[in-house]
Write a structure and sequence with these properties.
Blueprint: E1 4-13, E2 16-17, H1 18-28, E3 34-35, E4 46-48, H2 68-77, H3 82-93, E5 98-103, H4 109-117, H5 132-136, H6 140-149, E6 155-158, H7 164-177, E7 183-190, H8 194-202, E8 223-224, E9 226-234, E10 244-253, H9 266-279, E11 288-290, H10 297-311, E12 316-318, H11 321-324, H12 331-345, E13 347-348, E14 364-365, E15 370-371, E16 376-383, E17 387-395, H13 396-399
Parallel strand pairs: 4-8, 5-6, 5-7, 11-12, 11-16, 12-14
Antiparallel strand pairs: 1-2, 1-9, 1-10, 3-4, 7-9, 10-17, 13-15, 16-17
Length: 411
C-alpha cells in the first residue's frame, strides 16, 4: 500500500475541543468521565459528555439537519483549522474529487426520541417539523457535512457499530487507489442518546463507575460521544519527518455472535495481522497499541488473547477509553487521532482508572504515560457482530526505510 498522509486532523470529545485540549488531557491523565446527568436518563453510570452542544447553532441554510449529532459534527469540524484545510483541498483538487467517509452508530436518533415525547396525544402523529431523513438517518451526518463544504464527490457512511470510523479509512483508501478521488475527509461522529444508554444497560454492560479497561475488576463500559476527522491525501515525496501516515489497514468479520467477540480473538487477530502485512511491518516494529479496550470482561479477554498471538506480551499498550469513554461509532476516528498525536509528540498514553491491570491478560499494559520517540502505532476497533478493523500509523521519517520483520507470531 502506498502510504496516505493525514495532512490535517482534529478531535473533540469529553476531554477537550481540538488537539491542544486533547493532548493536554492525555498528558495530565485527566478523564472526561462524570456521573451521568444526560437528559432524563436515570442510570447509575458515568458518561463522557461534550459540554455546550445545546448552544451550537447550525448555519441557517442547514437548519433542517439540526440535531445533537450534527451539532457535534459542526463543533468538531471547526476546530484546529480543519474546515479551512478542507476548503483549501477543494481549491486544489476540485469539490468533485474529494470523498467523504464517516462512521456513526446511532447518528441523530436522539432527535427521534425527543420527537416521540411530542406526539399528538390523539393521533400519535410525530411533530410536523420532525425530519427523519435529515436527522436520524445514518447518512444525515455525511449529507450535513457534504452540504456544509459543498462537496460533490462520493459520500459514504459506515455504520458497523464500534468499528465504523476505523473502517472509513479503508473505504477512502480504496477509492483513492482506484483513482476515483484525490483526497478524502474521513472520521466519525456519535452522540449520547437514550437508546445506547438504556440499550447497553439492558445488556448488563455499563459500569456504575468510570470504566476500568483491562483492570482485574473491570465491570463494564462508560459511554461517551465524540467527533473526529482527518483529511487523507497521497503522501508527498518531500513529506516532513513528523508527517503522520496511514501505513496499513486490516479488516475482518468473524461473525461469531451478535454482541460478543470471538472468545479466542480470531477476527481481532486477523485484522491486526492484515494491517501489519499491508504496512510491511513486523510485530516488533510497533511501538504502541491503542487497544479497543472496552472494559467488559469478555471483550478485554478476547482482545488480550489476539494481541498475545500476534505481538507476544511485550508491546506497550493501553486503552484510552478510561479518559474518553467508549464513543461507539466515533471511537475508531477518535483513537486514530490520539495515535497521530502520540506519534507527533512522542507520547504513549497510560490507561486511566485501571488499578491493577489484570495479570491473567498478560499484556504490557501501561498504567502511566511514557514519553519516547515513536515510529509506529496500531489502533484496534472491534464492533458488534464481529466486525473488526486495525489501523497502522507511522511518521514519515520512519517509514521510508522500513523492512518487514519475520518475527510476526502466528498461532
Amino acid at each position: 500500500m502506498n502510504p496516505l498522509w493525514l495532512s490535517h486532523f482534529t478531535a473533540t470529545s469529553s476531554i477537550g475541543r481540538g488537539l491542544g485540549q486533547t493532548l493536554a488531557a492525555l498528558r495530565q491523565r485527566r478523564s472526561g468521565l462524570l456521573p451521568c446527568a444526560f437528559d432524563t436518563v436515570d442510570l447509575a453510570t458515568f458518561v463522557g459528555e461534550v459540554a455546550g452542544l445545546d448552544e451550537v447553532r447550525l448555519p441557517a441554510r442547514l437548519a433542517d439537519y439540526d440535531c445533537r449529532n450534527n451539532r457535534l459534527a459542526l463543533l468538531g469540524l471547526t476546530q484546529d483549522g480543519f474546515a479551512d484545510a478542507v476548503r483549501a483541498a477543494i481549491e486544489n483538487h476540485g469539490r468533485q474529487r474529494i470523498g467523504l467517509f464517516l462512521g456513526t452508530s446511532t447518528s441523530g436518533i436522539l432527535q427521534t426520541e425527543l420527537a416521540y415525547r411530542r406526539r399528538d396525544p390523539a393521533t400519535g402523529a410525530l411533530p410536523a417539523g420532525f425530519s427523519y431523513r435529515s436527522t436520524h438517518n445514518t447518512f444525515s451526518v455525511a449529507e450535513f457535512t457534504r452540504q456544509y463544504f459543498g462537496l460533490t464527490g462520493p459520500a459514504v457512511v459506515v455504520s458497523s457499530a464500534c468499528s465504523s470510523s476505523a473502517k472509513v479509512f479503508a473505504s477512502a483508501r480504496r477509492m483513492i487507489a482506484a483513482g476515483l478521488i484525490d483526497a478524502a475527509v474521513v472520521g466519525g461522529v456519535d452522540s449520547l442518546c437514550l437508546t445506547t444508554l438504556h440499550g447497553f444497560s439492558s445488556l448488563g454492560l455499563i459500569s456504575e463507575q468510570a470504566c476500568r479497561p483491562f483492570d482485574a475488576q473491570r465491570n463494564g463500559i462508560s459511554i461517551g460521544e465524540a467527533a473526529a476527522f482527518a483529511l487523507l491525501e497521497r503522501s508527498p515525496e518531500d513529506a516532513d519527518d513528523q508527517a503522520v501516515l496511514l501505513l496499513g489497514i486490516g479488516e475482518s468479520s468473524d461473525a461469531y455472535h451478535m454482541s460478543s467477540p470471538h472468545p479466542e480473538g480470531l477476527g481481532a487477530r486477523m485484522a491486526m495481522q492484515d494491517a501489519l502485512k499491508m504496512a510491511g511491518l513486523g510485530s516488533s516494529e510497533i511501538d504502541y497499541i491503542n487497544l479497543h479496550g472496552t472494559a467488559t470482561q469478555s471483550n478485554d479477554a478476547a482482545e488480550a488473547k489476539a494481541v498475545r498471538q500476534v505481538f507476544g506480551s511485550g508491546t506497550p499498550c493501553s486503552s484510552t477509553k478510561g479518559a474518553t469513554g467508549h464513543t461507539l461509532g466515533a471511537a475508531g476516528g477518535l483513537e486514530a487521532v490520539i495515535c497521530a498525536l502520540g506519534l507527533r509528540h512522542g507520547l504513549l498514553p497510560g490507561g486511566l482508572n485501571t488499578r491493577p491491570a489484570d495479570p491473567a491478560l498478560d499484556l504490557n499494559y501501561l498504567l502511566e504515560n511514557r514519553e519516547q520517540p515513536v515510529a509506529h502505532m496500531l489502533s484496534n476497533s472491534f464492533g458488534f457482530g464481529g466486525t473488526n478493523c486495525s489501523l497502522v500509523f507511522g511518521r514519515a521519517g520512519n517509514s521510508a526505510n522500513k523492512s518487514a520483520d519475520k518475527s510476526v507470531h502466528h498461532p
